[in-house]
Amino acid sequence: MQVTTERIITVNEAHGLLKDRQKQGNLSYEQQNTLNYLEDLVKLDDKDSDKMVKELKGIGFTEWQAVKATDLLPKKEEELKIVLAGSGAIEDSVLKKAFEIVKSYKKDAKEPAKTKKVEPAPKEVEKPQDADGESEKQKTADAAEDTTDEKTE
């Protein structure tokens, strides 16, 4: 397969592309994992996502800036500023307009799914130490060393 064009896409677009491919029955293992992951990230419906990107580009955002703001839907203006920090200088007035756009779409956004909490593996419980300060585990290891020393002598 040869790449003919390259462009930035929103999480919604990526999700939509993988959903279409899934309907055709052509998902690889990696693509299925990606689809599962994206389902937790999609916050807006496709129309709102596309509309928001166009609005942000309309106030002077680059494609990359508009897509990142749409995908992340920051909760505070400061978060939006941080997300866009590495993409060039943005005037405060444009940033304020952008955040107003984000807020207008955020009210319709769905909350991301709660991730499952992974329980840590149970710890091995060591028996209390005796008067010498050795645990049962240490005594067993020491006894095993003593028997191997006797055999080699």
- Helix-strand category: mainly alpha
Beta percentage is under 5%
How many helical stretches?
7
Outline: extended
CATH topology of one domain: DNA polymerase, domain 1
Query: What Rg, in angstroms, do the CA atoms define?
Result: 28 Å
**Count of extended strands:** 0
What does this structure look like?
This protein is mainly alpha-helical. The protein has a domain at 11-106: HRDC domain (DNA polymerase, domain 1, Orthogonal Bundle). It contains seven helices and no strands. The mean pLDDT is 81.
Detail the topology: elements first, then pairings.
Blueprint: H1 11-24, H2 29-41, H3 46-58, H4 63-72, H5 77-83, H6 92-106, H7 136-152
Compact overview of the structure:
The chain is mainly α. The chain has helices spanning 11-24, 29-41, 46-58, 63-72, 77-83, 92-106, 136-152.
Keywords:
DNA polymerase, domain 1; extended; 153 residues
